[in-house]
Amino acid sequence: MDSSSFSYLESRKLVKRWNGPIPALVNTLLIAAFFYLTWWIFQDPRGMMRMYTPYVGYMVCRWLLILFIWVAYIFDFWPFKRSWLTRTHPLVKGTVLTLFSVAAMVLLIKGFFVDILGNFGIAYFNPDRLIEMGITDFYSIEYAAEAIMMFAAIASWLSPSWVVACENAPWAKLRQPARGITIVLVTFFFSMIVYFLTMHSHMAILFYPWQKYTAICPPYWEDFANTVSGNFHIAWIMCCTVVVWLYETIWERYPFNLIKTDWLRRTASFFGIIAIALALCYFLYYAQDLVWGSTIRGTRRLMAPDWRWLHVGEMAIFWLVPTLYLNFYCGNWPNKFSRPVNVCLRTLLTAVMAVVVYVIYYKTSHLFLGTQKGFSHPQQFPMIPMIWLINIFLINVWFMDGWPGWKAVPKTEAELEHVHAEVVATDVKWSSTLAKGLAVGLAAGIALYALIINVLPWIGANLTIIE
Amino acid sequence: MSNDKKVSRRDFMKGAATGLCVGAFAGMGLYSYSPWAYSRLPKVQRKLEDFGACRSVRVTNISETSWFNNAHLIGDIHEAGGLLVNQYTLNWAPFANGKGSAKGSYDEAMATIKDLIPHDLEKAWEIQKGLSLHPENPGGYSCLIEVEALDGTITKYLLDTGWSYEWMDASFKREGIDEMLKAHEIEALFISHEHWDHFWGLPVTTKYDPRIPLYVHDGFYKEGLQYIKDCKHTGDLKVIKDPVTRIESGMALLKFDVPIINRVFGETSLAFNVQGKGLVLISGCCHQGILQFADFAYTNLKYDNDRFYGIYGGLHISPFEDWDPKYDDLVISLGKWGFERIGCNHCTGHLTAKKFIEAGYPVVRGTARFRSASKDYLGNGDKIAFGC
Questions:
Q1: pLDDT, tens digit, for every residue of B155-214?
Q2: CATH topology of domain B49-67+138-386
Q3: N or C: fewer beta carbons within 10 Å in chain B?
Q4: Which residues cross the membrane (chain B) (predicted)?
Q5: How far apart are CA A209 and CA A206, in angstroms?
Q6: Rg (CA), chain A
Q7: Where are the domains of chain B?
Q8: C-alpha A342: how far from its chain's center?
Q9: What pTM did the predictor assign?
């Protein structure tokens, strides 16, 4: 089997340079230091560039995430040659690929969104046009950044979905850059449609009077979501983004990879991810109502439905951090059981770790991020530091082969076969015993859910995260 | 164990593990946002704390114009790095050191005027104007609250003390506040929150009455607490820790722990029970949200007719004439709460007032005097009464 028929990420294996937990510890320390250094330089409100205005910083970290996905997943590092990827020192590679991504991001934001779309299509993408119409400079930039960021939120779900769920179909056999360009254009096109269906009305309401001739105001979700804010869509779209990565990493594409028919597996994966994301979205919203009480439409912050929807997305991102960490730095532990058991244990473990990260973040982040304590500061988005951290994970693992704790080696024939086995799995077969287990598991899952929703009000009444 | 049993157990575990995840997600998806789920939520247990009643409350708007040019204010914030930057570093008077945007320092600024406040505010402000960004922009927020007890006794309070020494001193003189302070007629000063436009004008109050009792939220930072000392305040400083603090019959101070822009934490607002009328809410900026304020009062306090009666103050909706769809949630919802008199201004934003009026809400109009920009709400020098 030829490794060139696989993507670079599929063709390499990351091998620890040292035994035991030392590689993970070393990388964690370096990542933490790099996070804090770059946070101070670019984002921190007390730092140098202070992009955390908040929307400018929000836009930048989200678009960086997408560019990393495009570079590594969709373009398979084109125009960089495979030989360059395998021979270049990880530090050089990481620097070059990161700067390349940043340049592409600037070109996209400034070139496409601001200069083309903002000058010839939709005014709110261009801050200068808003300033000309009398909106203050600061809010003109914030509004434009918000719109561009919202587009990124959608693309960060659809772009990896096409690779992970749809397996690059029907363009998987195209060579680069044809495949990359095609998938980027297609996902960009779908992102544009989803943007108009979910976010355009939100932006239209920003201006007085409501821009009823150009967008549906009030939007169709008002009664269902109890708000006219597009944060409702941020909630489920962020959950989609997170579930895509759960599916790709700790779930090893289980259970949809049991479907052998290509089109059915891909369709089931794509819509299954959305279904799971919606379930997660509704649960996280309900969980907040159980802990903090019912929302009050029209108020602000903690009790407002728009903020609760936003916080659904934020909580989902808190799950993504331990998920990627487990996959990247802990060898997707545990691995010794069957795939379904491994997946179940990883899911439970990362969910618990997400709660831990969440609690630690809200208890301590204001001490070192230049932010304020509190859940619902209207200008603070925990997604910004979390995605910033995730971006650094991706630079480290995708662009630098996990340096310094890991190094890349080519996969063997057998290991390349395993890549295929993950796309279409045969390790779970239907049997009466499996059916019994499934029935028992279903009952246990429902019981677990019931237990959680019954414990949450007690947690709300008895535990305080922020003193 | 036989191989068959092993395989069988392995299959069972595969099914159980898959089922556990599927069952949990199915429960989440099918139940969480359903009417059945919400019917389980516990009903709010109202405490109905009796804090007495008063006959009426009168509010005189000393100043609602906290700043005169939105673009300058928000431009300075933008230049400094946005809405999370520490307000004491913005290089606005009286905490300017002449080093430019985001390089301000409490200590360096205070060194230039410490010996002058509060007795020589003109000179202190002049020095600070020379060091600060947009020195002509500051105004301030402050109002006089007169509470008429059931026996007819009237007690006066100040809510906030503005920003510019120059502007606030003139505003105090215009409304006779200076003389009231000198005569110790004002019972206490409540600082709603630590923001520049509500708190930084403190020496204008201490100039006339340094012994006035002062109420602040316990989220005040060390700079704010030091400033109180540097303003030569000699009176009782009450750092509020409790959610509800009764001030007098029919008057309570409510505390909200909310993070606010430019590194401020927490706000306190006032609630009144006007006999025969109902609940009146008075706020500085109401960063907690007016409906959260009302809901907190509903949950905790007992008031006549169980009715929301009036609002006065900044509602912090579009203070910089910015907008967000969530603000429309308030415009859409406010009518359901049944307030009879809405006296809004300051950080409510002109656009919000306009939308309230368009929605048919009982907004009390103003006269747009003394540099207030719109008649859509209560401007400088305007008064509103509840229960008279």
A1: 999 999 999 999 999 999 999 999 999 999 999 999 999 999 999 999 999 999 999 999
A2: Metallo-beta-lactamase; Chain A (3.60.15)
A3: N
A4: 12-33
A5: 9
A6: 22
A7: 49-67+138-386, 70-137
A8: 22
A9: 0.93
